[in-house]
Amino acid sequence: MTRAGSLLITGSTGMAGREITRQLLTRTEMPLTLLVHDTGKALSRARLLRELFRLEPSQSMIQRIRLVRGDLGQDHLGLPGSLYADLARSVDGIIHAAATTRFDLPLAEARRVNVLATEHLVRFARGCGNLARFGLLSTVFVSGRRRGRILESERVHTAGFVNTYEQSKYEAEAMVESSDLPYVIYRLSTLVGDSQTGFTSRFTTPHQALRVMHLGLASLVPGMPDYSVDLIPTDWAAATIVNHFLDGPRTGRVIHLVAGATRSYSLAHVIDESYELLGQLDSAWKARHYPKPAITTQAAFQLLVQSAEQAKDPLMMGVLGMLKHFTEQFSYPKEFDTTNLNGADSPPHIREYYGRVVAYCLKSRWGRYA
Amino acid sequence: MKRSKQVRSSVAFLTELGFSYGYVTEEADRFDELLVAAAQEAMADSGRARADIGTLFLYSGLNPHARAPRAGGILERFRYPVAKLADQLELSHANALALSQQGCSGLLSAINLAAHMVEAGGSPAALCVAGDALPRNANREIMYNLMSDAAAAVVVERGSPRNRIVSFHQLAQPAYWDSPQRERELVAAYFPMAQRAICAAVEQAGLRLSDIRWIVPSNVSLRSWTILAELLGIPVSRIWSKNIARVGHTVCCDHVINLRDMSRKGALTRGDHLLLFTFGFGASWTSLILQH
């Protein structure tokens, strides 16, 4: 695609969007328009570069960034008409990374953030006269409760979904697919942190699961012990998306960004490894002798959840509630087709960097001291 | 109990967990009489003469007999319930020992100790008595369980013709000693540790789980046993759970009460392997395998 115009990025303060923006800033000279919500409003561009993207701000870098405060949930992206029209003229590429990745939202709320926002952005993109590419970040778990091999070329299914995040991203994909835009959909598995430093800007489900283990509150995990837990490093995912977005030959396709079974731990192994690493890194924790959670059936896990809910135990409800919205996936083993990655570098094996992620979680106390 | 605020949860929730009744000692200062009655029944049932009983173990985890010393009355601390029980049972020749601080694992541990003593020689039998009554108007819900007051007793004999001890296995986690502070962690640890303790006991006995005819439960919630059955991969029907609703959970008398009732109801056949399991504060996860 041409690199003369401006690239509009939504969700540049999020886990994936932040790393994508960082790489675009360091690896290209492209002007970037960052459509930000309130998170970025109070920051100057220099502070944004330093605090959000961990970059030393140079004058040229500052000048390449255009900060636009908007709201994807509103018509015209919440922008004044003139600004909206100006952006439509100048933008020649869009990466839509903004999303809620919470699994526990009511469907209407998840749709409002993930589907309605996409609808507004698609409408905007249609008005961009020079648009060469529209990238949507999505999830491989739009496949929901399907099992077995999941092709990049297929989306539609009737298997149902484990949570509202999956369903809302499925619907967002459908909207983009049915548009006449030059789209590429990047379906990511689960981002877990930087492969070199372990850094993560968001402490998402795998980090929270690790925290539950650290708190000694991990009791039961529903699923299959040999389920392949597909985790990918944020830096690899961002680099792969940036490379493809800038140089990829074709639009109108879906790309799976996954580690695959050969570069992943099984569910039983990831639990073992988490306990091993926590013990190595935190001797006080090791002395508490917390047992590893038992891997069990959905039925048994649901009974435990039900007990915590009925007993109105807020801590256990929080812990089990967090787990219940994603662990159901551990009962639907999948293998993801990666044909469209087309020779891109593979991610490292989880064993090469998981220790760094665990160390970062411990050091930052899951974000408290980030 | 709900009216007297001894339970916090709704009756519907407790019922769903499997509880219908709990037993409350109305006259806590007459709790001794329950201990004596249980011990006398066990001795009568065994057919043993008093002279055969060389050791008396009393397990009382909550120690309802402990009283604050009166002013200047430090001797109050030396009013030993086990000596009183030995006196009441006319077991003056027996070595009387009290055990405490293993919670619900207490009686199974006492049985294990007694078995080692009678096997080692000396007297051919030991009497293990256990009993606890919660303080008056105490909250009777502990970690999703309804607590009852109870006493129970069992005679452990050398070469007993029934309920031979096959294996005893206890997984201890003393790091969990501070039960109030670590209540949530204990709830979380319960199932994975229970699974490990049961599987280890079965393996130690040279058996498979499928060889166990009955799991004789502590009368904690039926729901927790349903979860544990799923974890172990056994049908919940192999857990003799009939007393959970009727009796509730006592500190450590459940297994003996259940075994007696199983026997009376004809649930036991000679040669059956029985697995008795419980969790005790402290913390320990304890399994005792018997062959009936």
Features:
heterodimer; A: 370 residues; alpha/beta; Rossmann fold; 42% helix; 17% strand; globular; B: 292 residues; Peroxisomal Thiolase, Chain A, domain 1; four-stranded mixed β-sheet; 8 helices; 22% strand
Provide a descriptive summary of the structure in words.
The complex is a heterodimer of chains A (370) and B (292). Chain A is of the alpha/beta class. Chain A has a domain at 6-194 and 230-261 and 334-348: Rossmann fold (3-Layer(aba) Sandwich). Chain A contains 14 helices and 15 strands. Chain A has helices at residues 15-27, 38-41, 45-52, 59-64, 81-90, 107-126, 164-177, 205-214, 234-247, 267-281, 283-286, 298-310, 314-327, 354-364; strands at 6-10, 32-36, 65-69, 91-96, 133-139, 148-150, 183-188, 190-193, 220-222, 228-229, 231-233, 253-257, 265-266, 294-296, 334-336. In chain A, helix 6 (107-126) links the parallel strand 4 (91-96) and strand 5. Chain A is globular. The relative contact order of chain A is 0.14. The mean pLDDT of chain A is 93. Chain B is an alpha/beta fold. Chain B has two domains: 11-157, Thiolase/Chalcone synthase (Peroxisomal Thiolase, Chain A, domain 1, 3-Layer(aba) Sandwich), CATH 3.40.47; 164-291, Peroxisomal Thiolase, Chain A, domain 1 (3-Layer(aba) Sandwich). In chain B, 33% of the residues lie in helices and 22% in strands. Chain B contains eight helices and ten strands. Chain B has helices at 11-17, 31-46, 81-88, 106-119, 183-204, 222-232, 242-247, 254-264; strands spanning 53-59, 95-99, 125-132, 141-142, 145-146, 150-157, 164-172, 212-217, 273-280, 284-291. In chain B, the strands form three sheets. Chain B has a four-stranded mixed beta sheet, with helices on both faces. In chain B, strands 7-10-9-8 form a four-stranded mixed beta sheet, sandwiched between helices. Chain B has a two-stranded antiparallel ribbon with strand order 4-5. In chain B, strand 9 and strand 10 form a beta hairpin. In chain B, helix 5 (183-204) packs across helix 6 (222-232). Chain B is globular, with a radius of gyration of 19 Å. At the A-B interface, helix 12 and helix 13 of A face helix 1, helix 5 and helix 6 of B.
